[in-house]
Amino acid sequence: MASLRSRGHPSRRTTILFLGVAAAAVAALIWMGVRLLQQDRALEAQQLRERREAAADRLIIALEQVLSAEERRLTDLPRADVASPADDAVWITEGVSNSSEFHVWPDIGLLYYPVIPPGQEPPARRYVEAERWEFIHHNYRRAAEKLRPLTRTADPAVRAGAQLRLARNLRKAGDLESALEIYAELAESSDQGVLISGVPADLAARRARCALLEELGRRAELEEEARHLRDELMTGCWRLDRASYLYYRDQAARWLNQEPGSDAEQQALADAVIWLWENRQDIGDVEPGSEGRRSFRLHGTPVTVLWRQSKEQLAAVIAGPGYQRSRWFDPILGSADFGSIRVGVRDSDNALVYGNEPAAAGVPATSRLASVTGLPWDIVLVNADPEAVLGQFAQRRRLMMMGLAMLALLVIAASYLIGRSVSRELAAARLQSDFVSAVSHEFRTPLTSMRQFTEMLVEDESLPAEKRRAFHRAQERATRRLSRLVESLLDFGRMEAGARPYRLERLDAGRLVKATVEEFKQEINPANLVMECSVPDEGPAVKADREALAQALWNLLDNAVKYSGDSPVVHIEVEAGNPVAIRVRDQGLGILPAERNRILRKFVRGTSAKASGVKGTGIGLAMVKHIVDAHAGKVLVESESGEGSSFTILLPPGE
Ligand code: ADP
Question: Which atom of ligand 1 is found nearest the CA of 617?
Answer without folding.
Answer: 2
